[in-house]
Amino acid sequence: MTKHDWDRLKWSDVMPKTAYMSRREIMAGALALAGVTVGGLPGRAEAAITAAASKWSTEAAPNTLEEISSYNNYYEFGFDKTDPRNNSLGFKTSPWSVTIDGMVDKPGDYGLDDLMAGVALEERIYRLRCVEAWSMVVPWIGFELATLLNRVGVRPGAKYVAFQTVLRPEEMPGQRSGGIDWPYVEGLRLDEAMHPLTILATGLYGAALPNQNGAPIRLVVPWKYGFKSIKSIVRITLTDQRPPTTWNVLQPREYGFYANVNPKVDHPRWSQATERRIGAGIFAGRNETLPFNGYGDAVAGLYAGMDLAKNY
Q1: Residue 42 near residue 216, CB atoms below 8 Å
Q2: Terminus-to-terminus CA distance in the chain, angstroms?
Q3: pLDDT value for 284
Q4: Which residues of 212-245 are buried (b: 16+ CB within 10 A; e: fewer)?
Q5: pTM (predicted TM-score)
């Protein structure tokens, strides 16, 4: 399979070695110590960032923080790509709690610090592929969703995990508009949620998530289109029924429940065979879309025997 040019790039190809090593030394030193304040990350009292590079990270060069934080789909704050940064300045992310309920042994309302107490945060450099056929590479900071689900205890019979975004129309101007039935909701099959690639992110580039990127805690599922990675989570529910998801309810012909990146299944209004890399420049051309966004070796087995055109 032909790889993207940007998949062949490494940090050292785009960053001076001294700068790269300095960043890694910081991660390996000051940030790897438990009990140290980590760039303003939530859960700072007890969470630590692991110094070693994750085996799940791509070696592709990440987009810049400016690109990642200024080109966003976060419709709660507006429908233009620059709206989320401009309109989220007053969004309050502290204090924050997440309700965990449904088919779990320990339901309750958990403060963010409680959720992250004792959790080793890890840098995961993941590809991000939007259903609109553009892409980025993002250095998230977070932890595996499975860690949290195991902590609260998944009851027998649970098959799905449902998620809900905060509803605050007074702070989120997009929620005061029509067209979407707020709050935003998403869902995964339980085996997808428990996969080690699936993380809850609380930061990027070693600091707390910007508001426009889903602060203070969001889902990241790198083999699926970006709209599956719900932002600013306030509820996680374990259930035996497939949950409704916002875009699938809004337009089921265009947005399926699974939303796995698939170059062979076009959106009804555009091709998914290629993608535009944000920040690559107007003369860079387009890259081939990789099945499962390049994570097929790790996740294709989850869908053995399924028709991925029908179950898009």
Answers
A1: yes
A2: 22
A3: 86
A4: bbbbbbbbbbbbbbbbbbbbbbbbbbbbeeebeb
A5: 0.87
